[in-house]
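Page 47, continued from p. 46.
Same chain as before, 98 aa.
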Amino acid sequence: MKAIVTRRFGNPPTMAVDERPTPAVHEGFTLVRMHSATINQLSNTIRRGDFGFPTAPLALGNEGVGIVEESDRFARGTRVAVYGRSDLGVSVDGPFQQ
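Result:
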């Protein structure tokens, strides 16, 4: 899947469209095909390198909307809004990817 990945944090950051493997879905998690993701203050702070511990390369974002692809909780095709856990887009890849 395609992802907008921050390769280097700073001002200006280095960002690029990369090809990433589709993540495996573990119990209690849902795979969502993202249609839209927000750009918010947290993402901008991380992108600038002003947030302590993120490691590049990283797909930013912690909010968005999309369609369920695989889940043990939601039916495939269900439209959902994503508001991530505290590590989404910070220490694990966020929704700036398909």
